[in-house]
Amino acid sequence: MAAESSRLDSCVMATTDLVQKVRAAALAEGFDDCAAAPIAELPAGGRLREWLAQEMHGTMRWLERDPARRADPRRVVASAKTVLVVSRSYFTDLPVAESPRDGRISRYAWGAEYHDVMGAAIKRLYARIEELMPGASGRYYVDTGPVMEKAWAEVSGLGWIGKHTNVIQVGTGSWFFLGAIVLDCELPVPKPAPDHCGSCVACIDACPTGAIVAPYVLDARRCISYLTIEHRGAIDREFRADIGNRVFGCDDCQEVCPWNRFAQLGDSARPFMPAPGRQAAPLLELFALSVDEFRERFRRSPVKRAKYEGFRRNVAIALGNSADPSAVGALARALDDVSAIVRGHSAWALGRLGGSNARTALREALVTESDPWVRDEIAYAETMIDGSSEPVVAS
Ligand code: B12
Ligand code: SF4
Ligand code: SF4
Given Cys at both, which of 32, 159, 163, 220 links 169, Cβ 3.0 to 4.6 Å? Predict the structure, then answer.
């Protein structure tokens, strides 16, 4: 890094012209927009602490780690002055899987792993900034660091945080990723982006699980995106029917947002075009994937974050919601799965599909099943078939 005087010179020279050059570099690296926010204590920091205190983050314990650092990047880069926020569209202009027999994957995960695409582009942009602003230094992040990317995007004027809690831009919508570069240089103060949600509540009404518990507040524990991607272990029965055919993530609140009507396919979203079998695929095909086939199909895809067991759990739930009697055989075989999580959710799915074959499979499984939680799921599934609302605890 250059000497301190050089850094000060370059910071003083952070003029509108320089900002235009940084912006041009960002666009050249594949980003659609870029805006700078001056560092100050984020109001969102207090809200983050409140959100954590209410346990709305569920099992995402990593969010608890040092919230003060998340709210103030100066705790990471002591001399930080600016957060440069970049965005890149993943809107690929294709319809979502409507058939309940197909597994629906969230738009953001149809194509390349965005951490790879955004990470490589932000690294190149950072190198360009070092050339444009000799002496500048900082750090860059895509999701991985303790930076509240949405809050900084709002302060920078790049967009506003909608009631569904994603950042929206006029003319573009919300189908974009964010990245952030924390810099030790000042850039001209941005114009704030006004909130254009107005009296609209379409996202709140559309959420299948009531996860947007108040405007701008998401209870992750109820969010299908959290449940199917981040959450390990059993998914509460309360949410299983509402998960429908979503096997990885959820887009409902964004699908209904009127601002997303303006989204258009651009070059920046090309890497996120769906690879075969990644936008949607028959549930039975997904359920039949071996661990190696799962890894192969979702190599360099965000879907691998769910892990094999979590993905099969999600597919089992979706099969239960599919009303497809031909799924009974595969679910019955899964009552022998090595994973208790897969066995338990398969039992629930059999109960939801119902019928004599499902009942026989559940009864047979109860003879050999020793896991108390799976036994309880089997007993509950039997009550679903009987039409009784009360689960019977297996002895
Ligand atoms: C944890 C996380 C999640 C969690 C929690 C989501 C959430 N809303 O926080 C889960 C797993 C649910 C999730 C889901 C998704 N995520 Co996510 N996620 C993150 C991550 C890693 C951290 C976000 C965070 O700090 N959350 C904590 C809460 C407390 O913060 P917050 O949402 O910013 O909430 C504040 C505001 O809403 C605010 N607020 C603002 N204005 C107002 C006004 C009032 C009156 C009030 C009361 C509050 C308020 O108060 C809250 C507290 O600070 C970010 C990356 C990053 N480092 O920022 C990506 C990120 C937010 N996710 C992203 C995406 C794409 C998604 C999904 C669309 C993926 C999918 N299709 O399944 C869904 C969207 C679900 C939804 N409706 O938000 C993108 C969003 C891009 C965008 N355009 O905004 C990000 C930025 C990743 C990236 N690098 O691009 N995600
Ligand atoms: S992603 Fe789905 S479950 Fe989560 S808030 Fe949006 S609509 Fe609700
Ligand atoms: S659906 Fe309506 S309320 Fe929700 S984010 Fe979009 S404009 Fe705002």
Answer: 159
Instruction: Examine the residue annotation and report whether 116 is marked as an active-site residue of this protein.
Output: no
Ligand 3 atom with the smallest distance to the CA of 201 is: 3
H-run or E-run covering 181? strand 176-183
Q: What is the tens place of the pLDDT at every residue in 185-229?
A: 888 777 778 999 999 999 999 999 999 999 999 999 999 999 999
Residue 87 · residue 153 · CB < 8 Å? yes
- Domain end: 159, 183, 207, which one? 183
Question: 216 alpha carbon to ligand 1 midpoint, in Å?
Answer: 10
Domain end (from 119, 152, 183): 183
Evaluate whether residue 281 is within a structural domain. Answer: no
82-89 sheet: strands from edge to edge: 33-38, 82-89, 176-183, 138-141
Any domain includes 196: no
Q: What pLDDT score does 395 carry?
A: 31
Q: Are residues 298 and 178 in the same domain?
A: no
Confidence (pTM): 0.94
Query: pLDDT-derived band of residue 96, with 50, 70 and 90 as boundaries?
Result: confident
Q: Which domain holds residue 340?
A: 288-313+322-395
Tell whether ligand 1 has an atom less than 6 A from the beta carbon of residue 150: yes
Please choose from 116, 118, 175, 218 the residue to mutate so as to test ligand 1's pocket, defined by most ligand atoms within 8 A of CB: 218
Give the pLDDT band (50/70/90) at residue 309: very high
Give the per-residue pLDDT at 388.
Answer: 55
The rounded distance, in Å, linking the Cα atoms of 109 and 273 is 9
We report the CATH number of the domain holding residue 156 as 3.40.109
User: How much is the average pLDDT of 345-356?
Assistant: 97
Positive or negative, the CA dihedral 375, 381, 386, 392 is positive
Look at residue 265 and tell me if it is in a domain. Answer: no
Ligand nearest to the CA of 45: 1
87 CA to centre of ligand 2 in angstroms:
21
Domain annotation covers residue 76: yes
Binned at pLDDT 50, 70 and 90, residue 14 comes out as: low
Number of domains in the chain: 2
